[in-house]
UniProtKB/TrEMBL annotation:
InterPro entries: DUF3011. Pfam families: DUF3011 (PF11218). Residues 96-133 are annotated as: Disordered. The keyword Signal applies. Residues 1-27 form the signal peptide. It comes from Luteimonas aestuarii. Keywords: Signal. The keyword Signal applies. Residues 97-112 have a biased composition (Gly residues). This is DUF3011 domain-containing protein.
Length: 309
């Protein structure tokens, strides 16, 4: 009995001694992000690690979005952003995250380049410091960025979608009275807006769609915006006036009651093209309209305005 009592007492003493020892936390304190101010001295993997960790610390454990991480890596290696600059930008982005997500806008210290990215094929809209046209400077994505398809521009803004990631800058040719061609397309019959010079007019130079492009109906202008709708796709001339193509020569030709009709064409102006479809029936070259000798022929209800380049 005495031996059993000794074992019990020894066990109790050991338990008491352990209880008296300072508690040791099993969870190690979270490692704070540490890096030199010049992140270019680190390997790319270490750059990813410290930037990701800093974001996690500031956001209470959230993972940094892929596009935001790519943006910071580019700024470190191409624009010499410091670690303090990145920490400041992370704080700003998190403070404004309730307003629609992170938007890098113009790179710090440069007002002539805007990086805009469609991450995971989602639409993204980015503001620009210029109000004129925009042009693609450098594609960053494997997905090809095609104006009118997965990126568009309007005054003060660039919109990307479908995985297009690129850097954009101000376009050319909006000074001195216009004369710049603009391609504007209504895809899936949806309304589309394209930037044009402020207070400038525009004219349809060439229709690209089988759906009719009719001014005031499926296309028009308001202020410095050109709009197209209901499938109209065309090339427009900013600052232009109503009339034919570049030469000013045009011919209207109509197929009445779906019958074939021919209209005289002056071949000295070269080959005609369909400037504007004026019928609900499609005008398709080689199918419902064509050029033969010194005439234009139309059929199957095609009515259109044909112009010289």
């Amino acid at each position: 009995m005495s031996r059993l009592l000794c074992i019990v007492l020894t066990t109790a003493a050991l338990a008491a001694g352990l209880a008296a020892m300072p508690a040791t936390s099993h969870a190690q304190p979270a490692t704070r992000a540490y890096a030199p101010e010049n992140l270019r001295t680190l390997s790319r993997d270490d750059q990813v690690r410290v930037i990701s960790l800093e974001y996690s610390e500031q956001s209470r454990g959230r993972r940094i979005p892929d596009d935001q991480l790519r943006f910071y890596l580019d700024q470190v290696n191409r624009s010499n952003w410091t670690f303090s600059r990145i920490k400041q930008d992370i704080a700003t982005s998190l403070a404004g995250s309730s307003g629609g997500g992170w938007n890098p806008g113009p790179p710090h210290g440069g007002g002539n380049v805007v990086r805009c990215e469609s991450d995971r094929n989602r639409p993204q809209s980015c503001s620009t410091p210029w109000q004129g046209p925009s042009r693609l400077l450098r594609q960053l994505s494997d997905t090809r960025c095609v104006e009118g398809q997965n990126w568009t521009a309007m005054p003060g803004r660039i919109n990307v979608t479908g995985g297009c990631r690129a850097e954009f800058g101000p376009g050319q040719g909006w000074g001195g009275g216009g004369g710049r061609e603009i391609r504007c397309e209504s895809l899936n019959n949806r309304l589309r807006e394209c930037a044009i010079p402020g207070a400038a007019s525009a004219r349809l130079v060439r229709q690209l769609s089988s759906a009719p492009c009719i001014e005031g109906n499926t296309w028009g202008t308001r202020g410095n915006v050109l709009w197209v709708n209901h499938g109209c796709r065309g090339i427009f001339m900013a600052g232009g006036h109503a009339g034919g193509g570049a030469s000013g020569y045009s011919v209207s030709c109509a197929s009445e009651n779906n019958r074939q009709n021919t209209c005289a064409w002056n071949n000295s102006y070269g080959r005609p093209f369909l400037q504007q479809q004026q019928s609900s029936a499609p005008c398709r070259e080689g199918s419902t309209w064509g050029h033969r000798g010194n005439t234009i022929w139309v059929s199957n209800g095609c009515r259109g305005l044909f112009s010289a380049r």
